[in-house]
Amino acid sequence: MKRQKNSVSREDYLKAIWEMLEEGHPPISARLAEELGVTPPAVTAALKRLTRDDLVRVDRTGRIDLSRKGRQFAERMALRHQLAEMLLTDVIGLPWSKAHDEAERLEHAISPEVEELLLKRFGDKTSCPHGVPIRGGIAQLRKQGAVLLSDLRPRDKAEIICVYEKDGQFLEFLDGLHLRPGTKVGVEKREYDETMTLHAAGKTIHLGKPATSRIWVRRLAT
Q: What is the pLDDT of residues 87-101, one digit of tens each?
């Protein structure tokens, strides 16, 4: 049975709000419009529907939050997105850099029955192909002690555990440098403009702040 367009839109809004809350970015209408590629009036109309359905709450300052019902819905969509990514990469063999965009489309078509089967198939996985914890997000990474690569200093050593997944070109760039979850890196130098010189995958790599602020790592003993 084909889903209605407004149903998919609701799922996208709730997941986007949940992701912003997880990342510590206060959800506001302007940020939602930019994230989802829609107009501000469209966001306003969507938030009215979501508020009516007791899925979100908007305070006097315009800050958006999820109700308990809305959070449960959003977390289910985030889980289906992760399962879709694993299906695409582990079973079909889709390149890592393309998994997020394809999963954005596929997640809406996953039924409860298929979700259960995928959970059985990938039951031993603790994170998606990009390192985001299963049934969790960036907030979970912080609880586990993860920090951004950009926070490290010279002579620090770390292991990459998660990378920003919403930019396919960025993922292709990292793939070319063999920088993926599980790769160990050492910081050799940090310039005044926050460009970092790293040793990873047997070679020296130079990364700027736009890249290092999108890579989560776990510090290792030096």
A: 999 999 999 999 999
Tokens of 85: 């990514």
Which CA distances in Å does 222 have to 129, 145, 200? 27, 17, 15
67 in Cβ contact with 78 (< 8 Å): no
Give dist(CA 147, CA 130) in Å, integer: 15
Domains, the chain: 5-69 (1.10.10.10), 145-220 (2.30.30.90)
Contact 164, 176 (CB under 8 A): no
Quote helix, strand, coil % in the chain, to nearest 5: 50, 20, 30
Structure tokens at 43: 């966001």
How far lies 172's CA from each of 83, 139, 151, 187, in Å?
Answer: 21, 25, 23, 22
Separation between Cα atoms, residue 169 and residue 25, nearest integer Å: 23
Tens of pLDDT, residue by residue over 53-86, are 999 999 988 899 999 999 999 999 999 999 999 9
- Cβ 115 vs Cβ 186: under 8 Å: no
Residue written as token pair 């050593």:
157
- 8 Å CB contact between 138 and 22: yes
**Tokens describing residue 215:** 């890579």
Give the count of beta carbons closer than 10 Å to the beta carbon of residue 213: 15
